[in-house]
């Protein structure tokens, strides 16, 4: 799998840097807070929201159980509708297909609808290497592209930028890539959108080839669907002569009725709207209307490996709404770049390690730990992906992979074996408790009071230092429970003499 920000450090290191950027944190807190509030409002209007979630989860689970059948049905439907279907096992095959189509049509540029799949396979870079410019037409993607930046959110890739920063990017970069921004451009959203519209319009009108993804692909009809808020996708899907859609194999839905459920879940969960301003559907080629050559690239790129994991495969239910990002306390404080992948936030923390595999890349292996396991992501997921369950499952996978790769036991392994040996014997457990009590007496001399009044230790030296950097370590009890029990006869020796008189007090 491609689509990882090469050179990105492991999540703890990247997150520490992000936490030091106060402007980034303000931008994220404002944006995610706004989206959360909008989502809560429109979801609260639906009396049977939980039933909708259950229906969405059931549809996606049915797809995953019978994925080969639905994919073959989708191919037949697409072909009957005049589309050309391509199968891509990985990013290299998918990129070669798209580049080949563009080259056959003699074009040196393509316009693009916002697409996570094309970011995942790094299609823009592959096109650029072949001398073909790929112009992003989504406003947020345009901001990221002009700013030579990286996306940090599934729904709003430029969520880490504020209006003043966007204005500076437009003034500095638009003229180098096409129509320049007006010299008197302000940071008013209306003016920024107008500058982007004027800049993109010339690209829409001259482009021969467009590239899109698809939110959903209906197997029974061969219909692809893209939902968006700006209309740029509609321009890409209708004006060019050739349309190439790169679609992950998990995006298939069995029937048009299933699409109805998803189009109720997705907009409320993503943009906090009852329905998307633009919902575009197309079925192959329609003579005289829209692109007259339609290609669909069905992309695997690690998805069949995810499908083979009974616990982890629920990640393939994802409809890319980004609701989990907007409620995640970790994402809100670190942003998407810290995750080092085009899939940030909680869903990225479970999807990227499965697509890439664990045990060989420290950055990827750190992602399942990029969570407090608070469960907020599951509560808002429209298709009920139990992200905390998968995170814990993947943490086990990471540990097992490291055990297989290393000949030496880890500090954690040594500690667990020592604990097992100690606790398997009553005598050893008693000696350990006495030692801990002695340590507690020494520790009490250097302990401090926390704001809650508890007696705690500071940073612990040695291997446990990293654990205590972000946690208060309680002072060990000076007396073990066993010693207290023996000394007080199970607490009875503390009872007043009158308690023994007939059992009355």
Automatic annotation (TrEMBL):
Stretches with biased composition (Basic and acidic residues): 479-505
Keyword line: 4Fe-4S, Electron transport, Iron, Iron-sulfur, Metal-binding, Repeat, Transport
UniProt GO molecular function: 4 iron, 4 sulfur cluster binding; metal ion binding
PROSITE patterns: 4FE4S_FER_1
Domain LUD: 71-299
Ranges where the record places region Disordered: 452-505
This protein's name: Lactate utilization protein B
